[in-house]
Amino acid sequence: MADKKKKPVSGDLAVNRRAWHDYSVLEKIECGIALTGTEVKVLRAGAASLAGAYGAVLGGELYVVQMHVPVYEFGNRFNHAPLRNRKLLVHRKEVAELKMKTEAKGLTLIPLRVYLKKGRIKLELGVCRGKALHDKRDALKKKAVDRDLDRWNRSS
After folding, report:
1. Which residues fall within 8 angstroms of residue 120, CB to CB, at 6 or more apart?
2. Spans of all domains in the chain
3. Whole-angstrom Cα distance, residue 43 to residue 35?
4. Cα distances (angstroms) measured from residue 10 to each of 70, 87, 115
5. CB-based contacts of 41: which residues, under 8 Å, 6+ apart?
6. pTM for this one?
7. CA atoms 71, 13, 33, 105: torsion sign
8. Are 46 and 14 within 8 A, CB to CB?
9. Are 73 and 20 in contact (CB under 8 A)?
10. Which of 96, 115, 125, 155 is 20 to 30 A from 5 in CA distance terms?
11. Bridge partner list, 28
């Protein structure tokens, strides 16, 4: 019997599609993330969820809060907690800058996606401002118009 070769995992491991609908993304920041071994295995399997997650500066350090990484099914008693706060690895100056933006300007830190880069798991954090209902409707209308124009251009 021939052995199946594993495909190298690349691309996005988890995406927060809802963030683009609910928020205007003003800036993106790439962060490293401190994980345990079982969390890495679950993330590489693509089982994590960023729904409802947000970034917070706690005690002078940046964390992602409410990011759901399910328990590793083949783990043992040292398995990780699914909703624990995970430390983000950024420079001290960036932490101070993000803290200032979130406190003074009323912005929010929202994780946009988790992905692999050169074998390391990275998290893309967005500095976001919440959209009002009419902004969301305008965005949906614009998307529909763009889709119709694209269809028309392809058919011509």
Report:
1. 32
2. 12-131
3. 10
4. 20, 23, 8
5. 72
6. 0.75
7. negative
8. yes
9. no
10. 115
11. 126
Phi, psi of 59 (to 5 degrees): 65, 35
Tens of pLDDT, residue by residue, the chain (156 residues) = 455 544 444 578 888 888 888 888 899 999 999 988 888 888 888 888 888 899 989 988 999 999 988 888 887 777 887 888 999 999 999 999 999 888 888 788 999 999 988 888 999 999 988 877 777 788 888 888 889 888 888 887
* The predicted structure's pLDDT at residue 88: 93
Cβ-proximal residues to 35 (8 Å cutoff; 6+ apart), any chain: 43, 86, 121
Sorted by sequence, the CB contacts under 8 Å of residue 101 that are 6+ apart come out as 107, 127
Question: What angle (nearest 5°) sits at the alpha carbon of residue 83, between those of residues 77 and 87?
Answer: 100
